[in-house]
Every structure is written in C-alpha cells, then in structure tokens.
Amino acid sequence: MTDDARIADVLSQVTTATITTILLKKGLRNVWLRGTRPLRPGQPRRVGRAFTLRFVPAREDLATPESWSSPKSTRAAIEAMPEGCIAVVDAMGVTDAGIFGDILCARMQKKGVAALVTDGVVRDLAGVLAAGLPVWCQGAAAPPSVAGLTFVNWQEPIACGGVAVYPDDLIVVDDDGAVLVPAALAEEVATLGPEQERFESWIMGEVQAGAALPGLYPPNAENKARYEAARRG
Amino acid sequence: MTDDARIADVLSQVTTATITTILLKKGLRNVWLRGTRPLRPGQPRRVGRAFTLRFVPAREDLATPESWSSPKSTRAAIEAMPEGCIAVVDAMGVTDAGIFGDILCARMQKKGVAALVTDGVVRDLAGVLAAGLPVWCQGAAAPPSVAGLTFVNWQEPIACGGVAVYPDDLIVVDDDGAVLVPAALAEEVATLGPEQERFESWIMGEVQAGAALPGLYPPNAENKARYEAARRG
Amino acid sequence: MTDDARIADVLSQVTTATITTILLKKGLRNVWLRGTRPLRPGQPRRVGRAFTLRFVPAREDLATPESWSSPKSTRAAIEAMPEGCIAVVDAMGVTDAGIFGDILCARMQKKGVAALVTDGVVRDLAGVLAAGLPVWCQGAAAPPSVAGLTFVNWQEPIACGGVAVYPDDLIVVDDDGAVLVPAALAEEVATLGPEQERFESWIMGEVQAGAALPGLYPPNAENKARYEAARRG
Amino acid sequence: MTDDARIADVLSQVTTATITTILLKKGLRNVWLRGTRPLRPGQPRRVGRAFTLRFVPAREDLATPESWSSPKSTRAAIEAMPEGCIAVVDAMGVTDAGIFGDILCARMQKKGVAALVTDGVVRDLAGVLAAGLPVWCQGAAAPPSVAGLTFVNWQEPIACGGVAVYPDDLIVVDDDGAVLVPAALAEEVATLGPEQERFESWIMGEVQAGAALPGLYPPNAENKARYEAARRG
Amino acid sequence: MTDDARIADVLSQVTTATITTILLKKGLRNVWLRGTRPLRPGQPRRVGRAFTLRFVPAREDLATPESWSSPKSTRAAIEAMPEGCIAVVDAMGVTDAGIFGDILCARMQKKGVAALVTDGVVRDLAGVLAAGLPVWCQGAAAPPSVAGLTFVNWQEPIACGGVAVYPDDLIVVDDDGAVLVPAALAEEVATLGPEQERFESWIMGEVQAGAALPGLYPPNAENKARYEAARRG
Amino acid sequence: MTDDARIADVLSQVTTATITTILLKKGLRNVWLRGTRPLRPGQPRRVGRAFTLRFVPAREDLATPESWSSPKSTRAAIEAMPEGCIAVVDAMGVTDAGIFGDILCARMQKKGVAALVTDGVVRDLAGVLAAGLPVWCQGAAAPPSVAGLTFVNWQEPIACGGVAVYPDDLIVVDDDGAVLVPAALAEEVATLGPEQERFESWIMGEVQAGAALPGLYPPNAENKARYEAARRG
Questions:
Q1: How far apart are CA B104 and CA F134, in angstroms?
Q2: What pLDDT does residue F68 have?
C-alpha cells in the first residue's frame, strides 16, 4: 500500500470536524472551503490529492463557446486528472454560471476522479446527479461557464471558498463540506485523527449515560485516567 | 395547437442549461433568474408566458394588512392571471418576508397558473407545499409580505433575480432554476433546442463508451461527421 | 398546568406565519430570526422560553481549545439550561465555524432542551442529526467554534438573525424558521392565534371550493357574516 | 408663496436627522435612502417633490446605445422634469454602471432640477461635478447605464436605497443623505421640525456649558420648564 | 507618569500598520476593526483604553425615544466614561441608523473622551464634525439609533468590526483605522513599536536612495549589519 | 514615438467613460474594475500596460513575514516591473489586509511604475500618499498582506474587480476608476476615442446653450449634419 493509499484509508474514518480541530491546534484556522456543500445528501466521505483548476471572470472576447476547443480548456484539464484525485475548482464563488454539466462530470467519473469540489455551481443538475460523480459545490445554475467565467489553467495555486489550495494538498470531503490538509501535515493528521475519534466516541458514551460536560469535555485528570483505563480495556 | 402550445410542448423537452447555451450564442448572457430554486426537489419542468408582479420596500403607512383590500392588491393581480401563465414576482431579493402563503398559492393553483417564480420567498411552507403549485424561490420566511414589501402593480417590466422580465416573455423552469426567453426568440429557441439535446445525448453516449473530451465536445470535423452519420442512422 | 405549559400547548397549534401576522398588527415587524432554517426537514413545531448564549469574534489569545475548560464556557452554559427551554445562540451570522457538534447537542438533548436556534451553523452534521436535538440554523461547517468565535456569556440580551432576543422571551419554531414573541405579549398571541388559524382554515375551504380572493381574504362584510355563521355552525 | 414653496422654505432649515426622528415618532422607521451620499462635500440642503425614474437589469437585446433614442428613454424623462423637483432614480443599487454622465446632468441643471438622488452611481465624475447639479449617490463608475441597466419608465412608484418612493413624495437632502417625507405628512413635519431644532439647539447650549445628559436629553420636568422659560425668554 | 500614560505616549508615535505587524508575529491576525475609517481626514493618532458599548437590533417595543430616559441608556453610558478612554461601540455593522449625533458627541468631547470608534455610523454629520470629537466609523446616516438598534449595556465584551474587544484593551487609531492591542500585550508592543519604526525609516531612506527591495526588506545579513552600524552611528 | 507611447498619448485625452462606451459598442460590457477608486482625489489620468500580480487567501503555514524573502515574493515582482507599466493586483476584493505599504510603493515610484491598481487596499495610508505613486484601490487597512493574503505569482491572467486582466492588456485610470482595453483593441480605441470626445464636447455646448436632449443625444439626422458642419467649421 502506498503512503497515499494508507493515509486515504485512515482519513476515510476521520470526520472533517475532527481534522479541523487537529489543524487548529497546529495554528491553522483557515482550512475549510466555504460554500462547498454535498450536492446530494449522504455522499460518501472521500480523500484525495487536490488537482486544481482556475477561472477568472468572463470577458466577451475570451469566454466563448469557441474557447472550449482551446488547448487551455477545461476539457484538456480533465484529461490530465489522475485517478483518485479530487478536482478543486476556483470559480471565485460565482453562483450564476455552472462550471461543468453532465458530460464533463461523466468524463471525470470515467477517469476515476474521486470527487469534484468548487466554490461555484454546476449546471444541468439532473444530468450531473445521473453522472454519479460526487460533487461538493454551492448548488446549480443553468448558464454555461462562459456566461460568467473564463478558464485559465490547471495545477496552479488557487483560492477556493476563501482557502488557499496548492496542487497535491490533501482534500477530505464529507457531510460538513471540504477541508484542506497541507501536504506536509498529512502524515501527522493521519496519526492523530483516529485517536481523537476514539476519544470523542468514549465521551459520547459518557454523555449518553448522563454525564455532565464540565470536567468531561475537555477531560480533567480524573476523566483522562478513566478514558485511559477504558482504552487499555 | 396554438403557437404557444406548440412551443411549450417542444421546450418542455429542453433543459434550461441548453436554453442558456443557445441564448448565449445569440449574445444574451443574462437570462437566468438568480435565487430561483425549486421549492420541492423534482418539480416538473414548466413553460409559460411571464405574468409579472412588482413590489417595492415596505413603508409603514402603505404596507399594512389593510392594503390587502386595495384594488392594486396581490389578490387582484392573481385574479387577472390567465391559465398556463407563469407568475414572476419581483421581490427585490428580499428573504425575510414571504410574498405569498398557502391561501394565495391555492388560488393560483385553482386558476391553472403553471408555476410561481420569485427572487423572494414564500411563507407557511407546509401550507404552500400542500397547495400543490410548483414554486421556484429562495426559500421560506414566516413574516407576511407587508413586513418588508409594498405591492405596486402587475404586468409591468420587472427585475427578478437580476434579470429584466417583460410581460409575455417566455419562462422555462426546471431543476436548475428559471430562465427567460425573450418573446422574439421563442420560436428560434424551440427550433434549435431539441437538436442540441439530441447532439449532447450522442456525446454522452460516446463519453459513457470511454471517449476523451478534446475533439469530441465541441466536436472536430471527424466527430461531426460521425454524429451526422449516427443521426441519419 | 402552568401558564407556560398552557401557552406552549396552545401555540404548538399556531404557525409562525400566523404569529408574525398577529405581531405585525401590534406594530412588531422584526421578530423572525433570519437564517434559522430547520436542519432536518419535518422537524416538529416547538415552543419554549429563550435561553440565550452570546459569542464575539475569535481572537487567537482567547478562542483556544483551552477556553473550553473556562467557567464561562459553552459547557457551563449548557449545564445551566432548564428543561423545555429553547437555546438561542448569537453567532453573529458566522457560517464558517460550527458552534456545537454531536457531543454538546447530545448533552442538550439529555437535559430536555426543546430546540437549538442559531444564526450560525453546527459542525459534524451526521453526529448532530444522530443526537436527535431539533436544530434551526444556517447549515453546517467542519471547523470548531474557536476557529471563528469566542464564547462570552449566557442569559444576556442578544442579536440572533437580526432580531433582539432577551432571556425568557418566547420562541416558536417550525418549517418557516424561528419567531420571537416578546414575553409581555405571549398571553395575547396565545389568545388570538387559534382564532386566526380557524379563520384562515375557513378561507382555505372557500378557495378550494373555487371562490375568488377579493372580498374573501381579507373578508368583506358579507364574507365576515358567512364565516361567523359557519363558526357558530 | 405656494404651500410647496413655504414647506420647502421651512424644511431647508431642518436637518434630515431631525426629520427622521419626527417620522419615527409617527411610526415610520424606513425613510432614509441607503447609499445616497453627497457626491461633493458641502452640497447645500435641498427640498423638492420626487420625480421618479426606474431601471431594471440590462438585457443585451434591450439595453443598447440605440435605446437612447426610444420614446421611453432617460432623455425623454429628463425633459418631463418640472423645475424644482428632485429626480430620484431606482438603479437597484447597481454600482458598476453610471446612470447619467456630464451631458444629462448639465441638461437637468439647465431645467432647474433641484438635485439628483440615486442608489446607483454617476459616470464621468469630473464632468458631472463641472455640470453643477447637486448629486446624492453611491459614487462613480465609468461604464454607461446600458452596461448594467435597462431604463423602463418615469413617475412610477420605485425602490431607492431600500425605501419606497412615490411620485410627489417630498425629498430632503443634506450631508447625512436623502430622506423621504410622505406627501401626506409634509405639512406636519414642516410644523414640528423647526421647534425640534430650537429645542436641540438649547440642549446643545446646556451641554457646551457642562451639563450632564441624564435628565437633559430627553428632558425631565425641571429641564422642560427651564427650556420653556428660555424659549419665552 | 503612569504606565498607561507612558504607553500611550510611546504608541502615539507608532502607526497602526506597525502595530498589526508586531501582533501578527505574536500570532494575532484579527486585531484591525473593519469599517472604522476616520470621519474627517487627518484626525490625529489617538491611544486609549477601550470603553465598550453594545447594541442589539431594534425591536419596536424596546427601541423607542422613551428608552433614551432608561437607566441603561446611551446617556448613562457616556456619563460613566473616564477621561482619556476610547469609546468602542458594537453597532453590528449597521449603516442605516446613526448611533450618536451632535449632542452626545459634544458631551463625550466635554468629558475628555479621546475618540469614538464604531462599526456603525453617526448622524447629523455637520453637527458631529462641529462637536470636535475625533470619530472613526463607517460614515453617516440620518435616522436615530432606535430606527435600527436597541442599546443594551456598557463595559461588556463586544464585537466591533469583526474583532473581539474587551473593556480596557488598548485601542490605537490613525489614518488606517482602529486596532486593538490586548491589555496583556500593551507593554511589549510599546517596547517593540518604536524600534520597528526606526528600522522602517532607515529602509525608506535606502529605497529613496535607489536600493532594490530583495535583501533589503526584509534585510539580509549585510543590510542588517549596515542598519546596526547606522543605528549606533 | 513607439506605438505604445502614441496610444498612451492619445488615450490620456480620453475619459474612461468614453472608452467603456466604445468597448460596449464592440460587445464588451465587463471592462471596468470594480472597487478601484482613486486613493487621492484629482490623481492624473494614466495609461499603461498591465503588469499583473496574484494573491490567494492567507494560510498560516504560508503567509508569514518570512515569505517576504521568498523568490516568489511581492518584492521580486516589483523589481520585475518595467517603467511605465500599471501594476494590477488581484487581491480578491479583500479589504482587511493592505497589499502594499509606504516602502513598496516608494520603490514602485522609483522604478517609474505609472500607477498601482487593485481591488484590495493599501496600508500605512499616510506613508503611501507621501510615496507619491498614484493608487486606485478600495481604501486602506492597517494589517499586513500576510494577515489575509498569500502572494502567488506575477504576469499571470488575473481577476481584478470582477474583470479578467491578462498581462499587457492596456489599462486606463482616471477619476471614474480603472478600465481595461484588451491589447487587440487598443489601436481601435485610440482611433475612435478622440472623435467621440470631440462629438460629446459639441453636444455639451448645445446643452449649455439650452438645447433639449431628444434628437440631440444621440443626434438625429439634422443634428448630425449640424455637427459635421461645425466640425469642418
């Protein structure tokens, strides 16, 4: 199993809520991509390296249906995506032009892209849902991307939902949205995450049994000892 | 079959995504009404002539429960709506006062109004859903319209979701929201739309069969020829 | 039955739409808490006294995981909540840091809190839904509260969704969101509400039977008389 | 002197701050037009009847340079403005297309228009300032109105800065912006305004002499008596 | 000279730009109060302890002219302000109701308040400017505070411009706006600030003499040595 | 004189208002950079080729004072700027972190940069004004860029104020803000601009002489003939 596969495997058991708590303790407060909600409720948690795409605003002389044939097109970007990556698209938060529709999403699904994440929207909602690709975005809009956006390039640093995303940063998506794990911290998060989940699970058991919160969450010395005892089992 | 009925019949098979692409090619980039989402997932695609209503902000001396009896009331506007029209309401994007509740929506449903479209919200969500009228809007709020809006008139040019809507423009609504087709372009969109849908359907088949996007979508000469051959079938 | 129980019992039959109409007639236009949508569709209508919590923005020297152990923590606030109250949380409309996750919501549920209302968001959506506490909010975000917020105190006057909420004001929540009834007006709203619901129900029957709106809603003298006759039945 | 001239004469001595206080006491809280700042510091206070103009969003098939020759053009609207009126323009708060430039403002100045008020912006700032017409707006932008707006009509009810303005309502503008006085309340405001100004002037004298605020502003019985004595002087 | 006087004296020579750089190096990124611009260009730099005031939204039953006589009024808060403090007002960013007008500002000036800082606006701009109190805010609006705000209390933790302000934190205001220095860091900032200003002044001299930036700002070892030499010089 | 020098010379006599009108007639509606106001009133009109810089949001592990020494720093970008260019900075509209302060602006001024244009803000306002570089931006903020932004690269396509700017597009700035002229259209705008200015100047003369607008602006056949006669004059 490669390092990436192992980390992805571990993190697929860790919530984005837990990951953001771990990153905050390391001084990283701005890692959650605003406006990236699951397009369909209950989409599975996914983990992958970021493959970035970047748009700038539409300009009538540049953002045309003809531009779809350019070598710097979204089509070419999709063909460059490796299996298992998560496509992260900087749409500058534009919600009135859909970055991709059913055909492009179907092609990404064919290529084994793990998920599409954007601070913009998709178009042809019914078609995108039918294509089967898990999508995190702000919703749907009918107009094509060129009605509001000009595609620029792929695998550059981007802004997405107010977060800086660099190619090959790790992305984790679940019901709470999408979070970024800087590439350099992936190993550490994969180590701390499962332990944090175990600990919170024990806390939840205590709460369900009627325990009050002060002294429990976060735990005082007594509860720390009780948890350690329970853990050693 | 009247022209309107024929156009409606044809366009009920064309997605709003396809319609916006066709209109963009004719130079119209601003035809999708922002903030008009289906109130209930899976509402059927609808096509109709716009019947416009216009609000301005509330003024305590004008926007009162008493105003509901005025000859320029929303009640009078609803009685003037012809069967099959789509009511399009300029609520200036206000989301904290519901333009209509269950009773007004039930009356519109009785009169055969095809759909209600607004950049504002409705109130009494449970009641509106029970009334059965398909609604595209920004959601729901409890307060009555007079808490934030003063009704002015009907069948005037309006702004709705950042788009100019004139009485009798054509409106098409589906999962992606609501789009405007200027009255003068309805015939042409009804001609081009189904062909575009056929073409995209062929592309999707190619993608599902594993084809890459460059040269396919948009098609190069070879793929154009293949499509023409398939079409003549 | 206490006064509170009686009022809650009556108001659990009155929609927030009706309550806002009654309050508007008394000159109160700003009682609907913006951005407080049901977290899960179909949550039951709830009525309770407001138990308020207040956040200010995060400051790196104050909003830390360590602050969770402070005597002025959200944990202590939750322990102070009486059974049947509705927790109303001023998160200043912040949507990129979740005020509470699964553990805190589970504890509130254990303590018999009737509902959680906030103009912010929760975190760990799956966990919060599993905890069973009915929540009205703007959605979910992964980051912990300290990523964007500093907790200050409880049972102070707060702003929530653009509305002033004082401790012990009455809160009613349903599909349309959350509305405030000033404590001094609770009795009167509980008197007027059911009658208004009965009246609107009669109107709806008329509309379903094909009646036009002018003269009916609001009613002219003739329809008032018909309603009175029907009511005396 | 006509009623209008007399009222204008009186109100030209009353601040918009005082006028809004008087209107609030009559239950009108929403009379200040948001986003209408003086274009040049120190523009004189002006009073006049509202002459309204209305825009909707741009549509490429409607908002064209050719539309400037239409009978429903801004040019025709300007020719219809009576001397002494205040032009109030509903630009829907659009700040990236200037409603008028130097030529149209110069023509309004020639026709004796007292002021231009809009929730949008002007264009060709240097030229507009040179034209001499006092303007209250959100600032300046280079693009012509048709880049973002379609002109519809004049002397209709409009929204301007979140306030409902009807033709012939009274408008007062000064350093604090623009306020609306409903036509029906003009006489009363003209009566109460000067007295309020006198009273506040006396208060200010007391404050300058070192008086504390509680009991003074608003005055208790003792200070009311002192003011009455001073007034009778 | 008290500690406070000494710190104020030192910091009155340090720009808010320099202070924010120092605080960022200590991990504090969110200390600049958004929307607090000088009301009059060229107001002097001021330093003082925060005296906080807090508003919540207006409620028609609470925010009335009568409330101005309440013991919890803005008037009472002003009388409690110590000489040399900086009044910091949480107006929740509301820009359509002025928190204070000429009379209240004149009283604050009389009491020796060093400055007024708010994320809201003032009213009666001409009168406030005449009162002489230096003000940092978002601008001016005619309506009284009760048109949009309810005053709650003073000397509580508040939010102002997206920053958490606690009573007795240090506030510094200049042309760039208002910044907060946590009370616990005041001494350290007063130590580091003047040295940073001296250093940047030396850099500016180098730039004016034609030096390129890389290696100079931030300095490499050579330039560090040159600066040290110049400083001892 | 080079082509660039000649075009710049011609366009320095043409307002940005006129340029946007010419571009709109060619189908380009989105060329005015929103939020780019002159920092100091009365800054001279400037014309130059765009030299672009791009920021993404701050990340605590990337946006540090140490990053100022990186080879991909703003310092290196400034050293790469050619004389006469206009620096156009994509700050994503962020207004709470200043992209540049006095030292960087002084260096740009030394290097002969014609102007700085950004949709963000500068810091150390007094210092920037003293540096003498003409700046178009949204205002000032005290915090350093790393408090909110991470610098990425220069001479890439960027978004600035909602407009797509490519390296070497032409930028013109005046009192109305900043407009983009696509490189391919520069020659044509330089040809049409002066003629349009002459024509509008003649119109203004007519208006000053008392002419009504309809038939004059835009001109009917008679007025076109009169203008042609005057022009040949």
A1: 58
A2: 76
Q: Given an 8 Å threshold on Cβ–Cβ distance, is E110 in contact with D210? A: yes
D23 burial level (CB within 10 Å; 0-12, 13-18, 19+): buried
Contact residues, C window 44-73, toward E, CB-based 8 Å cutoff: 56-63
Per-residue pLDDT, E154: 98
Task: Mark yes or no for CB contact D208/E110 under 8 Å.
Answer: yes
* Interface mutation vs chain C, best among A14, A23, A24, most C CBs within 10 Å: A24
Q: Which residue of E has its CA nearest to F107?
A: E207
Dihedral, CA atoms, D194, D200, D202, D207, nearest 10 degrees?
Answer: -170
CB contact under 8 A, D214 and E95: no
Query: Residue E144: which of D20, D175, D214 has the nearest Cβ?
Result: D20
From A215's Cα to the closest Cα of chain F, the distance in A is 31
- Contacting chains of A (3 CB pairs or more, <8 Å) are B, C, F
Q: Name the residue with higher pLDDT: D62 or C179.
A: C179
End-to-end CA distance of chain F, in Å? 30
Determine how many CB atoms are found less than 10 A away from the CB of residue D142. 32
Question: Hey, of C28, C61, C96, which one would you mutate to test binding to chain E, going by the most E CBs within 10 A of its CB?
Answer: C61
Query: Strands C37-38 and E46-57, how do they pair?
Result: unpaired
* Per-residue pLDDT at A233 exceeds 80: no
Which residues of chain F does E218 touch, with a Cβ-Cβ cutoff of 8 Å? 65, 68-69
d(CA F13, CA F20): 14
Q: What is the DSSP string of F62-104?
A: TSSGGGGGSTTSHHHHHHTPPTT-EEEEE-TT--SSBS--HHH
Letter string b/e over residues B184-221, b meaning 16 or more CB atoms within 10 A of that residue's CB: ebbeebbebbeebeebbebbbebbeeebbbbebbbbee
What's the distance, Cα to Cα, between the start and end of chain A in Å?
30
Given an 8 Å threshold on Cβ–Cβ distance, is A107 in contact with B212?
Answer: yes
- The average pLDDT across F132-140 equals 98
Token digits of residue E206: 């180098």
What 3-state DSSP class applies to C77? helix
- Subunit contact E59:C163, Cβ cutoff 8 A: yes
Q: Are D148 and D96 in contact (CB under 8 A)?
A: yes
Distance from CA of E4 to the nearest CA of C (A): 21
Q: What is residue F31's predicted lDDT score, i.e. its pLDDT?
A: 98
Which chain F residue is nearest to residue D147, measuring alpha carbons? F29
Phi, psi of B51 (to 5 degrees): -110, 110
Min Cα distance A59 → chain F (Å) is 6
ipTM score assigned to the predicted complex: 0.95
F23-62 pLDDT tens trace? 999 999 999 999 999 999 989 999 999 999 999 999 998 8
Size of interface C-E (CB pairs under 8 A): 74
Residue B175 near residue A125, CB atoms below 8 Å? yes
pLDDT confidence of F182, banded at 50, 70, 90? Answer: very high
Identity (one letter) of the amino acid at B171?
I
Tell me how far apart the terminal alpha carbons of chain B are, to the nearest angstrom: 30
Q: Is C112 left (phi over 0), alpha (psi -120 to 50) or beta?
A: left
Q: Report pLDDT for C2.
A: 84
**Cβ–Cβ below 8 Å for E17 and F101:** yes
Q: How far is CA F202 from CA A134, B15, D155, F14, in A?
A: 61, 51, 31, 15
pLDDT tens for A117-147 read 999 999 999 999 999 999 999 999 999 999 9
Q: List D residues 132-161 in contact with E (Cβ-Cβ < 8 A).
A: none
**Lookup: tokens for A141:** 């809009």
Indicate the SS3 state at residue B15: coil
Residues E179 and C76 sit within 8 Å (Cβ to Cβ) = no
